[in-house]
Structure formats: structure tokens, C-alpha cells
């Protein structure tokens, strides 16, 4: 049996995580007071009818949340196996999510969202330290978060802690603001100047073959993959939870998409937590 506790910052995606765990087949309980962890654990581990359980706990528990560590200590003493998933996101994204939903932060009654977020980070600091898995949902959709949980709890993949977002873009529309690494592929032959290829994109085989027939393209892709794999362990060691790799060409429709797709395919085959976005595919 797997006993999973989902916690983290308000607005970071705990509700979406719970829905995902329900879809996977877990028995889920939302907003359980931590003081009830011992009784629930005894019930679940003694029962032959419950196979997997996921609990969502957060700051909504108010004063009950201070019982969290006592509950965890009980699980340890009883030798009950458990896992803690901690969800977080950047301040900017949390503020945006609260404004979109028009909800009030549970730790601030005066409407100052940032003050509530700051206070919550402080209160949950020790909880984050003991988490088995920390997922930064800043750049994740609900579907991508579900995929992360599916990979861990269904396919049994080890979570490295680093989510890799590959973004193709066009320089004429500006650099992605959240990019950690930026690569310029404007040195490659441009399909835009081939009449039959102009209306297509790097998602089309004809464009990919045109771009990759150039030996420099293949060599660049090989070296790019090697460099990314070299860097990943160091980012993980430093505690980085999200890596954004931006690949740009002039318009963001042909060369950048081709290289981004091929890099994404290579990383996914090696079981990295990679996602891809073609930011400017609809432009031009």
C-alpha cells in the first residue's frame, strides 16, 4: 500500500494533484486535519479493501496544521511507509492564479496576496525539507502535472526533481522571459525561402528533412544533447526544479521547431521529465 501526503503552497496545484491521484485509482481525502493522521493510517494499513491512499493537507487546517509533524512521527514509529509530495510555484504565477480565480489567500484577510504567499512559504519551510518529492508547477499545465504523477505512481519512474521545458520561439517576437538557456539556430538553412515549405512548420517531415540534411544541423543537435545531459546533474545538485531551454530562429516556425522537437524526442527516450512548447507557431 502507498500512503501519500500531498501538501504545499496554496495555488500550486494540490486540487489538480488530488484529481490526478483519483484518476490513477487512489482513495483521496482533501483537507484532512493532521491530527487525524494516526487514526486514518491505522485504519488504512489494517484494511484489506484500501490499497492506495492520498491525503491533501495544507495551511487551510489552521491550528491543526501544527499537528503535522506529530502525525509524521507516528507513521515512523508505526513503521508505516509514507511519501510526501510538496507542490510549489513562483510568486508571480501564484499571484496570477489567485487573480484569475478571484479567491482570497487563506493567510491574508486584507487582500494582499503577496503577504499571504510570503507567510505561507515561511510556515511550510520545514515541511518542504522533509518532502520526498518537490514539484514546481510554475510552467506546468494541469495535464502535465497529471503526467508527472502518472509517471511516478503508475509507471514507477524515479523523479529527478528537474522538469525540462523546451520552448521554440522566433527572435522577431522577443526572447522567452523565463529562459535559462538560449540557443540560436538561425545559422541553419531557412525553409522559409522554399516556396513549398514556407506554409509548413517544423512539425512537418518535409521541413525536418530539409533542415537536418545539413551536416552542421546533425552535429549541432548531437553537441546540444551532450551539453544538456552534462548540465542536468549539476542543476539537480543545486536544487533547481525547472530548466527552460529556448531554441530560436527568425520566425519560430521552421528551424527552431525542428531542433526543439528532435531534442525533446531524445530527452524523452532517456526518461527525462521533458515538455515542449512552440510559442510562435501560429505567428507569421
TrEMBL record:
The gene is rapZ. PANTHER family: RNASE ADAPTER PROTEIN RAPZ. It comes from the Bacteria. One of its GO terms (molecular function) is GTP binding. InterPro entries: P-loop_NTPase, RapZ-like, RapZ-like_N, RapZ_C. Residues 1-152 form the RapZ-like N-terminal domain. GTP binds at residues 58-61. Residues 163-282 form the RapZ C-terminal domain. The keyword Methyltransferase does not apply. This is RNase adapter RapZ. Pfam families: PapZ_C, RapZ-like_N. ATP binds at residues 8-15. Keywords: ATP-binding, GTP-binding, Nucleotide-binding. Signal peptide: none annotated.
Amino acid at each position: 500500500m502507498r500512503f501519500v501526503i500531498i501538501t504545499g503552497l496554496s495555488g500550486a496545484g494540490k486540487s489538480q494533484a488530488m484529481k490526478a491521484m483519483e484518476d490513477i485509482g487512489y482513495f483521496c481525502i482533501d483537507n484532512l486535519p493532521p491530527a487525524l493522521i494516526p487514526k486514518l493510517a491505522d485504519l488504512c494499513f489494517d484494511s484489506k479493501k484500501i490499497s492506495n491512499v492520498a491525503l491533501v493537507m495544507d495551511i487551510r487546517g489552521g491550528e491543526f496544521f501544527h499537528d503535522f509533524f506529530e502525525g509524521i512521527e507516528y507513521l515512523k514509529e508505526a513503521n508505516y511507509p509514507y511519501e510526501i509530495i510538496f507542490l510549489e510555484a513562483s510568486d508571480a504565477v501564484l499571484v496570477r492564479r489567485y487573480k484569475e480565480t478571484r479567491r482570497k489567500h487563506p493567510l491574508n484577510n486584507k487582500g494582499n496576496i503577496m503577504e499571504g504567499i510570503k507567510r505561507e512559504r515561511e510556515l511550510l519551510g520545514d515541511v518542504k525539507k522533509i518532502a520526498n518529492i518537490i514539484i514546481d508547477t510554475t510552467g506546468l499545465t494541469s495535464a502535465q502535472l497529471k503526467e508527472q504523477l502518472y509517471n511516478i505512481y503508475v509507471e514507477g519512474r524515479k523523479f529527478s526533481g528537474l522538469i525540462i521545458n523546451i520552448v521554440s520561439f522566433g527572435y522577431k517576437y522577443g526572447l522567452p522571459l523565463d529562459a535559462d538557456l538560449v540557443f540560436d539556430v538561425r545559422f541553419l538553412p531557412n525553409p522559409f525561402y522554399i516556396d513549398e515549405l514556407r506554409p509548413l512548420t517544423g512539425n512537418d517531415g518535409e521541413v525536418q528533412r530539409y533542415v537536418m540534411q545539413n551536416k552542421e544541423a546533425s552535429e549541432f543537435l548531437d553537441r546540444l544533447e551532450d551539453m544538456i545531459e552534462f548540465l542536468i546533474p549539476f542543476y539537480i545538485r543545486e536544487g533547481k526544479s525547472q530548466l527552460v531551454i529556448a531554441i530560436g530562429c527568425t520566425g519560430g516556425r521552421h528551424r527552431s521547431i525542428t531542433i526543439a522537437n528532435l531534442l525533446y524526442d531524445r530527452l524523452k527516450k532517456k526518461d527525462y521529465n521533458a515538455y515542449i512548447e512552440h510559442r510562435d507557431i501560429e505567428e507569421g
